[in-house]
Design brief:
five-stranded antiparallel sheet, four-stranded antiparallel sheet, 1 helix
Length: about 140
Amino acid sequence: MTLVELLVVLAVVGIIVGMSVPALTGYAQRVRLKSATRQIVGLVSLARSLAISSHDDHEVRIDLARGELRVMNAASGEALEQVVRLPTSVTLEVQVGGESAPDARILFRPTGALSGRTVALLLADRDREHTITVTGTTGSVTVD
């Protein structure tokens, strides 16, 4: 094996690695956003299930400054251990009835419905976006 052959092999490996880095970065971005979306859907669904099963109001409290979502018993004020912390690259915007709501909460009644209008959680990571919609009358959770 000559030095020229070794340099050619190293150049080819360098080109392959250089082409794969942007693809891996995009993949990591998609995974972060999908993971955050799944965690939030799970947390919202948990709050709704708890409200129905315990016959007590439960809420998802959203702290945009800290990037946290937490389930709480609305009657007792007791916070459950389930907390979703958003990755720093993922941003969250809350819209209630189509209008931006900086300090929002999603309050589920014992029937499973929301006490209020439909809530949309807009998650974004650079150029990718997911929308979680919680319907006011039924409390159903959908992801777009």
